Amino acid sequence: MAKRQSFADKASKKIHEKICPVCGQPLKFTLVVKPEPTIDGQSFRMRSKHVGICKCNEKSVLA
User: Fold this and answer.
1) What span, in angstroms and rounded, lies between the C-alpha atoms of 36 and 48?
2) Of 1, 31, 33, 46, which one is least surrounded by beta carbons within 10 A?
3) CA-CA distance, 27 to 17, in Å (whole number)?
4) What is the DSSP string of 33-58?
5) Residue 63 pLDDT > 90
6) Mean pLDDT for the chain overall
7) 20 vs 32: CA distance, rounded Å
8) Do residues 48 and 37 lie in contact, with contact meaning Cβ atoms separated by under 8 Å?
9) CA-CA distance, 30 to 52, in Å (whole number)?
């Protein structure tokens, strides 16, 4: 049987996070959804993409 794990054991684990090479802040990955027109131009299609956001690119990504 597996060893029981307490909440303190789970909370003390280090979270795997990536660091921005420009500003040195940890990246927060966010799902960004943008509307994109279809080929016929009469409707829109939603495109989603996971993007790492930090202080240096926050305004350009979310604008």
Assistant:
1) 10
2) 1
3) 7
4) EEEEE-TTSSSEEEEEEEEEE-TTTH
5) no
6) 87
7) 18
8) no
9) 6
Q: Which whole-number Å values give the CA distances from 13 to 5, 28, 38, 54, in the listed order? A: 12, 18, 45, 23
Contacts for 19 with CB less than 8 Å, ≥ 6 apart: 25, 26, 27
Helix (H) or strand (E) holding 28: strand 28-37
Local structure of 61: helix, strand or coil: helix
Instruction: Provide the residue type at 59 as one letter.
Output: K
Question: How many Cβ atoms are within 10 Å of 56's Cβ, its own excluded?
Answer: 13
Neighbour tally for 24: CB within 10 Å: 10
Confidence of residue 40 (pLDDT cuts 50, 70, 90): very high
